Amino acid sequence: MYKNTFYSDFDFAGAEAGKPRPGEYRTAFELDRDRIIHTSSFRRLQSKTQVFLSGEYDFYRTRLTHSIEVAQIGRSICARLQRTSGLLSDDYFIDSDLVEATCLAHDIGHPPFGHTGERTLHQLMRPYGGFEGNAQTLRILTKTIFSHRQRGMNPTRALMDGVLKYKTLFSADEGVDNHFLYSEQQEDLNFVFDGRDFPESLNPGDVRNGFRSIECQIMDWADDTAYSLNDLVDGINAGFITLKNLEQWAESQDLGKKESDRIRDLADAIREESAEVLMGRKVAQFIEATSLHAAENFMSDRTSRHQYVLQIDPEMVAESKLYKKLAYEVVFLSRQLQQLDKKADFIVRRLFEMLAEYYIVPERPGKDHFCLLSDSDERAIFAEGDEGQRARLLCDVVARMTDGRASRMYQRMFDPGFGSIVDLD
């Protein structure tokens, strides 16, 4: 029996009303988590880029292992808050299954080749409403996660709110060109916030994007923790961050004493081949840096999920930013990764443009057309009379590709010497 007064029927509700299945023993949030785990959308994350291309080596993180790490950190934050905060109790607490579901789903909308693929798809989709990884996550959960049936998983309102990092709708005319939702997701916003309008205090858009449920706040800090610490370890193991270039980078920065001490500790760990141990300890410190505080806003009278803010020790926030800056400037801006990013941009761009020419044109192909996509994808695209909707469905197809599948399809379509009748991918 679920006894947690932190949540109410408002939080458990799904956008599509439905009766619980007979004999169901799981809570609504356990169902959310389980449905995510048992989907191809989630499994595809094992072959999508985190820092390095998936498949490069067997110990580098992928989007899947990153998401699992974020989920573990998120659950640990829940446990810490439950044990340390006087605002919670045995029958009033933040549900760790809901936080886990939110963390597992947070990157499910990312396309192949990481942020490079995301930027490229956004450029290509700008005339049709843009592309954004977080907006795509919400779209997958609510509309397409069961792609063979072209429907979503009917997530709870609390899960939808948990993955909603951004709440500003795309509008190129108004300059909203980054960190947005698709314009057609206004109905999701209306559902999540019970039809209430955002107050003037939450304008402009970047302020509104900072308005998040407590579960979304936990997920976001867990994500920051994972990629500022664990991704740094991958950069060290891959040889991108060495003692020499770490020292050179530090000399080029205007570092304060605390920052210099942290870089020195990292240098010592690299020298002693114990960077993974050091960052493991840092994960625990980042979790311990969290505390819960009460808040009031336009949704706090409707749900406990908006009655609290996650406060994080400013020193830990600064440390996270330091590691992210280091990784970005030494790893992501390295010549090797920039070359791979350029190749990724080229692959995604050529694939989309080739398919767009064929599937987004106003005239639909006749019976003798080339079949380039699956039957279910073609049926869905050809059933749409609106060019923008056909573009969105085609974008779904490209975005759900793994790194490997996108590369193979590119070779199959553009390399005369690649591909055979036994190549079924």
Structure description:
With 425 residues, the chain is mainly α. The protein folds into 3 domains: 25-209, Hypothetical protein af1432, CATH 1.10.3210; 214-335, no CATH class; 340-414, no CATH class. It has 19 helices and 2 strands. It has helices at 9-12, 28-37, 40-43, 63-84, 96-105, 114-125, 133-144, 157-163, 186-192, 205-209, 214-237, 243-251, 257-271, 275-288, 314-332, 335-359, 375-382, 387-399, 403-414, and strands at residues 290-294, 308-312. Helix 12 packs antiparallel against helix 13 and helix 16 crosses helix 19. The termini are far apart.
Layout of SSEs?
Blueprint: H1 9-12, H2 28-37, H3 40-43, H4 63-84, H5 96-105, H6 114-125, H7 133-144, H8 157-163, H9 186-192, H10 205-209, H11 214-237, H12 243-251, H13 257-271, H14 275-288, E1 290-294, E2 308-312, H15 314-332, H16 335-359, H17 375-382, H18 387-399, H19 403-414
Antiparallel strand pairs: 1-2
Helix pairs in contact: 2-5, 4-5, 4-11, 5-8, 5-11, 6-16, 6-18, 8-11, 11-14, 11-15, 12-13, 13-14, 16-18, 16-19, 17-18
Keywords:
Hypothetical protein af1432, two-stranded antiparallel ribbon, mainly alpha, 19 helices, single chain, 425 residues, 3 domains
